[in-house]
Amino acid sequence: MNKKQIFIQSAFTENAIWSQILGICSALAVTNQMKNSLVMGLGVIFTLALSMLTISAIRSLIPSRVRMMAQTFIIAFYVILVDLFLKAFLPDTSQQLGPYVGLIITNCIIMGRAEAFASKNTPLDSMVDGIGAGVGYTLVLLIISFIREIFGFGAIFGYQVLGSWWTRWSIMVMAPSAFFLLAMLIWITEIRKRKRG
Amino acid sequence: MKEKTNFLESRLYPVVFMIILSAILTLILAFSYQLSKGRVEMYQELRLQTNLLSLFKSEIPELNDKVIKENNPVIMNELYNKYLVSKILANRPDYQYYEFLDNGNTAGYVFPISAKGLWSTIKLLVAIDPEFNQYLGIKIISQGETPGLGARITENWFQEQFTGKVFYQGNSFNKLQLIEENGNPNADQILQITGATVSSKAIVAGIQHDLEILYNQNFSNVKVD
């Protein structure tokens, strides 16, 4: 498989959220505004890219008995770097995302890709796979947050696009709507997959 | 020599590997933390100073919306040193509060207070006049309520309602009441946020509860008879 195929496979055909149902906890939590989703997505892409690169580069050295521990350690390392960077350079965003940045560590997508791909493939391929999975994740976050923000606030990326005549749907702002939307998204992609056979 | 060739499979290797990995990663993290520490602390300090100063916006001539928006650390620090001084309670050495000075005279107190909201602990600053008669203003500094509903407690109109409300009158504490968002409030009523009764209530109750304790324990002698 070349790098392009790896990317397409991990971002779309085997999208972490709609096809593997991984990483949905954070997809539910940060999707009520597009800006938060985007920053969260970028954080996950960065963490995935670099931790996959590192894990793959030292994969022959990692003892198999402690590999999960080593992988978690490396992932946590990059997440703390992201957190420090946000606190030092984007303090407002950091304030808004609050504890969610730290929770990237527990994002199942990262452990999933480390186990399924980075521990068996070359560093560059793993990095592409990581970026692909991150892009796929960010894409889903943006789709859901677009729907939630436009119905819930009448806005896109914080810019008011629907006037004051728009009655805001409170349900879209609250957590339950993310469950409905995510379920619908998975449903739609499943139907499409089955039609194609 | 047999041991050496098999080191990667030995029982000791995972331990050595984890120790080396921890040492390297922790070293890099400690280094990056040191590098960013100054900036992070500066932002935290700046946020606190801006919040404190904006409570007294109408009393500080140098301060207006433009200065607050620009948020220049040097200017904010200068204003902070000129108008505010931090103090510690005698009976609670870990509790820091602030005194607002106008030409060297105490013109108000600011107390950090926490309230239990629907999802989160809401942290806010409450400013009160030196005799504990009325609120001079409140400022929400951190909260994790529902965006679009409870999180609207950070909107200015909601916070500004507290300015001028009576805290202590005659010989007793004055109780503030909540009424519907589109209602017509009297002097003791606060408009609550539609769909966020819990968050609105939490703030009113939290402020009154904490301030009453502070007043009873530390400030009951401030009243001028």
Largest sheet of chain A: 2 strands, antiparallel
In round numbers, the mean pLDDT of chain B is 87
**How many DSSP E strands of chain B?**
9
**Helix count of chain B, per DSSP?**
6
Strand residue percentage of chain A: under 5%
Radius of gyration of chain A: 18 Å
What are the low-pLDDT stretches of chain A, counting only 5+ consecutive residues below 50? Answer: none
For the report, how would you describe the main beta sheet of chain B? 5 strands, antiparallel
Gyration radius from CA atoms of chain B, angstroms: 24 Å
| Derived structural class of chain B | alpha+beta
- Provide a count of the helices of chain A: 9
Globular, elongated, flat, extended or rod-shaped: what is the shape of chain A?
globular
* Most residues in contact: chain pair: A-B, 28 and 24 residues
Provide the low-confidence segments of chain B as ranges: none
SSE pattern of chain A: HHHHHHHEEHH
Helix content of chain B: 40-55%
* Mean pLDDT over all positions of chain A: 87
